[in-house]
TrEMBL record:
This is BZIP domain-containing protein. It comes from Phytophthora nicotianae P1569. The lineage of its organism: Eukaryota, Sar, Stramenopiles, Oomycota, Peronosporomycetes. CDD domains: bZIP.
Amino acid sequence: MTTSPNTPSAATSSSLAHQWAESLTKSWSDEVKDEWRREQRRQNSKRFRTRKQHELIQLRREQDHLELQVKRFVAALSQSSTQKPTNSSELYSALCRLAIEGETLMREKLLLKQELYRHEYFLGIASKTPESVVVVPKEKKIPQSVLDASKKSRWVAYARREQYGWCVNFPNEEPSFFFYPFTREEFDGVIKTTLAGLSTDPLVVGKIFGWNVHPAPLTRNAETGSLVAHVRLTTRVKCSLKDADAMVSSSDVNSWPLLTTPTAWRRGDETSVSTQGLQQFDLNSHVLVTNICGQVHFRYVHLDLRWPRENENGIREVLYVAVVGDTEANAQARESRTDVQWARDSGYCIRFTEVNETTIDVTYDRWSQSESENQAQELFVDWAQVVCRWSQRATSFKLIESG
């Protein structure tokens, strides 16, 4: 007996075929979209490299043109200096000699600069040590605030001269990297995004060392795919806003909490950590880089902001924000190495809110990339130790039980 097209069996077969066709079409569509995105990224990278090559060629042409003009000018001065001028002026002769000496010094400066770049290049090659060799730090750290570190940093000096980018070396022969400076807009954008992510207020679940604990569940970064652990710790301190601000802002940059650490790293290995200033936008806005030595060097570029302000209720407060930051230019320029690991998705925010002239509320937000739930628990223990040390440091301040 022949099945009618209108029977339930025929309708079911037609429905299954329709669903299969829709599923197949969606799968093809997703594959096409993924391939289109990959092609867009390849084209963007290609255009970026081509643009930089053209800019470099143009700069070299301008350099050659300027050098030719200088040579012609110096040759004319040299020729005129050998001839006795009709007006024998000592000032004229002195100016000629100064011009010639200045050109000679310029040549010597260029030669020294070339030697410096050559030295940095070979230093970068020599620093590619085998993974089995652990670099032992040799530099003695001198306590200094972030402002002092920025004043002494040659990288900050490069940024002030509006250098397009430069090779960053470390004091203990760690592998170098090329850094493109942040724009003010990029810096502010990272800070704004960070503070927006801290707008929620998790519930209090307990106390530790006099601090209220507001844990947040593990989340996964949609872009990087990494797990992110987050906790908020709050308390009330018998201390003026001015004194608390001064204590943090003048603290040694090497004593700041590390935003994140490698899995096998244990506290007490601070001698393997080095922090350098890269940029300074103003007295309260800095870009730094931190490197933790090891068989694999663990490092991150971080943006640091001190922000005194009045909150939405008109109450005075001071925020300290430190967050791992990156730009497209730096991500593309970063060399892929087996002996260097770059961290991400980590930072902290300290908020001092004035209660009265002698009391402040302290909010300490902390988050970091995590490989597993077990590591997240280890991070929480480490963060609790940080606030415990902070409390010990402020021995003259009396903790007030927060309600």
